[in-house]
Model the fold of this input.
Amino acid sequence: MMKTFSKLAACYALLMGSSTVVISDRVYAEVYFNINNGELERPKGFREWIYVGTPVTPNDLNDGKAAFPEHHNVYIDPDSWAHWKKTGAFRDGTILIKELVSVGSKAAVSGNGYFQGDFIGLEATIKSAKHFPNEPGNWAYYSFSNPDLKTLKDSAKPFPAASCNGCHAGAAADDWVFTQYYPVLRGGKGKGEGAIGGMHSDLSVGH
Done:
């Protein structure tokens, strides 16, 4: 039933010229994800969302024991990006996707560095008072990665909140999200249509 309603909501949104559906003055928050029996279905099409950055903490800079040694390509769903630009807050229904990519070559024509290699995993975090009313900030965290680091699961159960929220609560700059490491999010926070951010905020996009 939820999947059917999600499809109908998305179709209605397209007809109305927006991916956001408003029902009784509430944003229908699940256009971009679907949770069935406590498991999140692996989202599709997230590379068409808003890309916000790629942090990397390589082993070379962490005594060979980095907790997250791969590149993390992070995307936010378009409706949540629009809400973030308008209000400076993450809406109920926000989903962030983290695409894990190995550190590949460390040398290129441009010089030495950390360049992306192969896709090795996929993770997601969702803010939902409906699904996670008792979790800090209503956030939950998922991983679709398989041990072989080559394939992905079709669905995933949330991590125990304590395994992620301890770090997020103590260090995240905005509502359990590490926005301090994402200049796109920092530059867009509450900036509306002027959300290109940074030192070039006075320039037009595309120039």
